């Protein structure tokens, strides 16, 4: 009897490692036997890491039709590589890979009575990205300086490498100590010659990223002078503050004193009498006495000193005093005329 050939999968690759954003082809080529007469089905499933969960169908070819609506996470990114999978190529392409696409995929080919399957492990890694360099420690001669390098993104394990960019050489100083796992470069007992541009390269299995930093080693700072200057500046500031406070207090006291003096003056001074009323009362009293006067007593009246009018009620300028004197003289003449009649 002759040997019969059964359905078999011929692709051999079982593991792939790709970077995020790339594309991958998961192979699944097969050959059919003459005994396989049923409907051809090609099914791809995702096997979860948790064995308690069920596998999920992600794409299916059956009865000359393609069904790819099963797995929303791969919607628009998953397709059969061949436009005619029944020709013996059931491979699939996954586009724009994401780290969440990492997992175990299985290709199942069925054509009764033949059935065959193959598992493929896909590992999607993230390239190093957003790598930053920094300097820790004082950049002074004789000090220990640490150059740091770290990537904000990237799938472990990440490795770091430092190099100094100098014309004609890229070697690190002889006293430097590099930790490739942490990205720290220790420069012991730094000298002026250590100055320059340092470049760090972060890498993993799928990519690299880099950054650079400028190191400038200078002589030690005169700390004594800095401290003295700080103390002097502080004292001057305190003196200025004290002067301002003194000026404000003095100004406040002066204003307070002015208010008190003004208030006392207003309380001590009596309100002035009405000059017009005082004058009228004085003239009225003199008129009343004129009615009883006779030529015999006019002489005594004419000699009456007008200075007896209260000075506090008739403070006048020299011009005003003359006017009053002339007025009194007119009154005396009129009284004389009345007496003669």
From TrEMBL:
InterPro entries: EJ_Adhesion_Regulator, Ig-like_dom, Ig-like_dom_sf, Ig-like_fold, Ig_sub, Ig_sub2, Ig_V-set. Residues 274-310 have a biased composition (Polar residues). It is a single-pass type I membrane protein. The lineage of its organism: Eukaryota, Metazoa, Chordata, Craniata, Vertebrata. Residues 268-326 are annotated as: Disordered. This is Ig-like domain-containing protein. It comes from Chrysolophus pictus (Golden pheasant). Residues 5-123, 128-218 form the Ig-like domain. PANTHER family: COXSACKIEVIRUS AND ADENOVIRUS RECEPTOR (PTHR44468:SF3), COXSACKIEVIRUS AND ADENOVIRUS RECEPTOR-RELATED (PTHR44468).
